[in-house]
Amino acid sequence: MDTKNKNSLKNYRPMKFVDEMERNKHILLLYDNQKYADWIIGRYFHNGFAKGESCIFYAADRPEIIEKQLSAGGIDVSLFKQKNLLRIYEIAKSDDNNKHDMLHILNQMREESKKSMKPPFRFVGGTITDIETKEGMKFSILLEETGHQHFDELNYSQICYYDISKIEPTRKEVWISSLLKNHHYVIYAAEPNKAVAFETMLLEKDDNRKEDDNNVYE
């Protein structure tokens, strides 16, 4: 990473939030520019390496593409792979025949991906490669709901990332609203003046406050 990018990254607002996130949280990363997503994921993994955590990237793309993206985020890929602290785990495309057993899919993928690595773990990625169709997004939301319902039983953190420019457009607001409800934190990685990060619990409090206000005037 060059000096200009290092300075830009240092002043990027969501970075402090990433540094202060609690462990064992389910994190939603939305982005419309790959560069900013790379920054967030790079920082997230760096923080994990500094604590001796094993970091696993679920890859829908070829591993060399992911390695390039991680390098762009400041990760020394070869070093951390050699130390067995970094793994790029290729995921298969979603199979319609397996959609009835969400929890099994998640558990099986998690167990296979972390073999021979030591806890605690940090994950990045997801199980769905198709987010551009209604069926793909429906399946993605069901998996996110299942994973989030059982997240407290697990001992790891995970970033689920979505390129918002590729999310199925006709119900995009509904999809994003559902994603927000099924994560502890959200990070919108965009240009510096638009980037934000916060706990999704704040949205629930705001919704409850609006309901209370409406009740007052009824």
Helix-strand blueprint:
Blueprint lengths: L2 H8 L3 H7 L5 E6 L2 H17 L3 E6 L3 H10 L4 H6 L3 E5 L11 H12 L7 E4 L9 H16 L6 E8 L8 H10 L3 E5 L6 E4 L1 H17 L1
Parallel strand pairs: 1-5, 1-6, 2-3, 2-4, 4-5
Antiparallel strand pairs: 6-7
Helix pairs in contact: 2-3, 3-4, 7-8
Output the helix-strand order: HHEHEHHEHEHEHEEH
Proper CATH architecture = 3-Layer(aba) Sandwich
Mind telling me the C-alpha Rg?
A: 18 Å
Mean pLDDT reading = 87
Total of helices? 9
What is the overall shape?
globular
List low-pLDDT spans.
209-218
- Give the tally of β-strands: 7
* Helix fraction bin: 40-55%
* Fourth-level CATH superfamily: P-loop containing nucleotide triphosphate hydrolases
Q: How are strands sequenced across the largest beta sheet?
A: 3-2-4-5-1-6-7
CATH topology: Rossmann fold
**End-to-end span in angstroms?**
57 Å
Overall tally of structural domains: 1
The biggest beta sheet is recorded as: 7 strands, mixed
Q: Return the CATH class.
A: Alpha Beta
Strand content: 15-25%
Question: Given the helix and strand composition, which structural class is it?
Answer: alpha/beta
Describe the structure in your own words:
- This protein is of the alpha/beta class.
- The protein has one domain: 3-Layer(aba) Sandwich (Rossmann fold), CATH 3.40.50.
- The chain contains nine helices and seven strands, in the order ααβαβααβαβαβαββα.
- It has helices at residues 3-10, 14-20, 34-50, 63-72, 77-82, 102-113, 134-149, 172-181, 201-217, and strands at residues 26-31, 54-59, 86-90, 121-124, 156-163, 185-189, 196-199.
- The chain has a seven-stranded mixed β-sheet, with helices on both faces.
- α7 (134-149) links the parallel β4 and β5.
- The longest helix has 17 residues, at 34-50.
- The N and C termini lie far apart (57 Å).
